Structure formats: structure tokens, C-alpha cells
Amino acid sequence: PASTLPHINNQHINQPTMKLSLLSLVATLTATSAFVPNKYGIGCTTTRATASVLRMSSTWYEDDIVVTLVPKFKIKEGMKEQYSALLPKFVELVKANEEGMCVHYGFVGPTEDDHVICREGYVSADAVLKHLDNVGDVLNEALQYADIVDLMVQGPAEELEKLKEPLADFGPTYYPLAAGSIRSKIIW
Q1: Residue 39: per-residue pLDDT
Q2: Which pLDDT band holds residue 57 (cuts at 50, 70, 90)?
Q3: Higher model confidence: residue 77 or residue 31?
Q4: Are 114 and 63 in contact (CB under 8 A)?
Q5: Stated pTM of the model
Q6: What are the strands, taking DSSP E only, across 44-101?
Q7: Which residues are CB-neighbours of 80 under 8 A, at least 6 positions away?
């Protein structure tokens, strides 16, 4: 309150204006301090309120360079429990070892017909290869309980080229990213 500030007398302060100014200051400080690029310069930690500030001050988007893998697994008959028990192990390995490389990672399913999809995004083809090395042992175990029935690989054409030989055994379908594709600068 104004009464606690040194050399300020409440009689000379317009209370509604002061409250509005303080609210504006707090909002500005909160918004500017919440936008912090991570140590790799590829993202930020922010809030939806900060997103509005970003939209006003610059573009909210950037070129999309993300390499996305979408493997679809079909769980073998009677193996759902064994396969499903491995999913948290994948996530833990990614959390522990892929900071700055992984944009997103998670599983969808299993569906009623025992399919599971992994949604994975990486900053480059090199990051994809490091990921496969990171989760290789768990993936090999998972392939005892499920088959990869489809693998989509999406991203910049030059990054996809780097993956064609290493991923050949999985029989992927490659989808080059269209020119002008964008992604949000904000990581929600």
C-alpha cells in the first residue's frame, strides 16, 4: 500500500490510477519474465497470457523443422499386458536423456483392436537417431510383444534423407514437409 512507501502521503495519490498502474506493472513483469528460451534456443516455457503478449510484439510462429515419427504397433494376441508395461519405460528414457532433442513424445492407445501409436517429434534427423539409440533395448523388447505395422516419418526433406538408410528395415513412408510450414514458438 502507498502508506508504507517512504515519503509518500496518501492524500496526494490517486488510488484508482495507482492500482491500475501496479496491475499493469505486475502484468508486464509476469509476461516478460515468463518467456524464457531454453538452453538450446528451441523453445520456451510460457503461459497462454504470455502468448497474447508474444502475438502483439512479434510473430507467434517460426519455420517448422520438426521431424515427426508416427509408428503404429499391433499388439500380438495375449501380449497386451507385457507390451503396455513397457510404455512408461520409453517415456522415462526420453525424459532422462533427450532434453533439447525431443519436442513431444507419448502414446495413444491401445485401441479396441490392440493398436498403439507413438507420437514423437524431434529437432532433427540426428535427434531421431539418438532417440532410437536411447530406447533401443526397450524397443527390441517391445517388438517381442507387438509388430510395427506402419511407420510415418514427416519433416523437412533434407532431414528425411538422413533417415532413409537407418530406418529402411522398418519400411517407413516418408512425407516431406511442404514449403512454408510453420509451428508455434510457444511450447504449451
Answers
A1: 41
A2: low
A3: 77
A4: no
A5: 0.70
A6: 44-45, 61-63, 67-75
A7: 110, 114
Residue 163 has pLDDT above 90, yes or no: yes
The DSSP result for 75-119, as a single string, is EPTT-HHHHHHHHHHHHHHHHHH-TTTEEEEEEE---TTSEEEEE
CA angle 21, 26, 29 (to 5 degrees): 120
At 47, is the secondary structure helix, strand, or coil? coil
**Buried/exposed 172-181: b ≥16 CB within 10 Å, e otherwise:** beeeebeeee
Q: Which neighbouring-strand residues pair with 174?
A: 153
Buried b (16+ CB within 10 A) or exposed e, 124-155: bbebbbbbeebbeeebeebeebbebeebebbb
| Whole-number pLDDT of residue 11 | 46
- Residue 44: beta bridge partners? 37
Mean pLDDT of 141-160: 98
All three cell numbers of 64, joined, read 517448422
Contact 182, 62 (CB under 8 A): yes
